[in-house]
Write a structure and sequence with these properties.
- The protein is an all-alpha fold and about 210 residues long.
- The chain contains five helices and no strands.
- About 60% of the residues lie in helices and about 0% in strands.
């Protein structure tokens, strides 16, 4: 399921890619000279931006899960059997235990498991709604629209995160020989894992090799 997100993420990143500088991704001899202080500033900005995008993404996901539970509670009692309602509520609450964090993002299987579980719960909830048109319960209809929007925005938020993560990783790669001069915490910064699948065995391009 993670790989199915590529097309949507690519579209979301097109505009950002247009603005990339020509030396994007280059290291060694092709890296532009930069002072230690300027490198600190760029790393700090990118790291803070990445944290901000992660927090927005996680907040959106948390709101979606909470609204699914609210929607389940708002569906009239006669529409769902008591045991089915209890099973759905348990499945929704289980999502928080399956969700990835900033370290486990590198585990594609965990992301796939979480996405599959989220889709399963959402599809099970929608099965109790009319195929077309409103339910007649204002709160259910409002939550249905909100959750649908939040669900579709997940790809966008992951794409935004990956874009900044790539910029940070590129900077770390370009100037890794300069990082020890910067002191804490800059000299211990590690590349950020991506949602996008990356071939770890692929050889670097010629302009990415060390000088």
């Amino acid at each position: 399921m993670k790989k199915q997100l590529f097309f949507g993420m690519a579209i979301a990143l097109v505009m950002g890619m247009v603005g990339c500088s020509k030396d994007s991704g280059r290291t060694g001899k092709l890296a532009r000279p930069i002072s230690d202080e300027q490198l600190k500033q760029e790393l700090a900005v990118l790291n803070d931006t990445l944290t901000g995008k992660w927090n927005v993404m996680m907040h959106s996901d948390s709101v979606k899960v909470r609204q699914m539970e609210e929607m389940l509670a708002a569906i009239p009692p006669e529409a769902i059997a008591a045991q089915q309602r209890a099973d759905l509520q348990q499945a929704i609450r289980r999502l928080s235990t399956l969700r990835y964090d900033r370290t486990s993002v590198r585990d594609s299987d965990r992301i796939d498991t979480y996405d599959a579980a989220t889709d399963s719960v959402w599809n099970a909830l929608r099965a109790y709604l009319p195929e077309n048109g409103p339910t007649g319960v204002a709160l259910v209809d409002s939550l249905n629209q909100s959750i649908t929007a939040l669900h579709s925005e997940a790809v966008f938020y992951r794409g935004r995160y990956d874009q900044t993560a790539k910029e940070l990783n590129t900077l770390l790669r370009r100037y890794k020989k300069q990082l020890p001069n910067l002191g804490k915490p800059y000299d211990t910064l590690q590349p950020a894992p991506l949602f996008q699948w990356v071939d770890k065995d692929a050889k670097p391009a010629e302009d990415e090799e060390e000088e």
